[in-house]
Amino acid sequence: KQKRHVMTRYLTGAALIAAAFALPVSAFAQYEEPDTGRVLMLGAGAYAVTNPYESAKDDLELGALPLFLFQQGRLTVDLSGVSWRALELGPLQLDARLSPRIPLVDPDDTELYDGLDRDVGVDAGLRVGAQRGAFSASAEYLIDISDQSGGQSVDLNIAWSVAPIERLELEISAGAVWSDEDLSTWLYGISTDEMIQARAYEFGVSPGAPSGGVWTPHLGVQARYRLTDRTLLIGGLEADFYSSDITDSPLMADDSSTGLFVGVMRRF
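Now predict its structure.
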């Protein structure tokens, strides 16, 4: 059975900050119910993410999230959204995706820009992945369908999995996210109709703001430890790195951001 890697990067607002809480569904076939082929897991987790915005009220944001996974046949539903396996051809897989964009921090958490709200949005798109042995690669295209950012993105990712001991699996990943001008403004800038205590920095529009979108590299490591036959301990640590195209925005204070996530999931 092919491994399924469902990335929840967009919990952080599509690389708004660096916490990419990757919960790979690889090897979950062992948790399938023998009569239905279904997987159902529930749990909870806690996160700590840095706030990269200027005049952040708190440099470190803490919070909790529910965790869930339902998988049956071609369908996978978890915190990252809904995936439908449209095609599986040898090592290649094609998934149709609906993905929530949930910013764990936003400009409203700052002193200077507390009127800039970034609400939860929904993206739709496709993901192409390939798996060969311990290595995997993917490319995901998403476009906003909820009229939040009005933008689109491409996420390129490569990963290497290793099991140093019987119960532990680690995944090391690297990649980059391209965000178009609309999404870049939503993530890192200030549109011309949002000039709150600062000049606008609208990508492709404002003087000095680059056009053509921006790239955000990311590095991370994720872990899954099998506590019992039914219980998993999961965690992730990731960093995003911002170029001068992003840090030139008056909204941005840091040239990188990091995030940490730990949680527990149990099969039912």
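The first strand starts at residue 5 and ends at 6.
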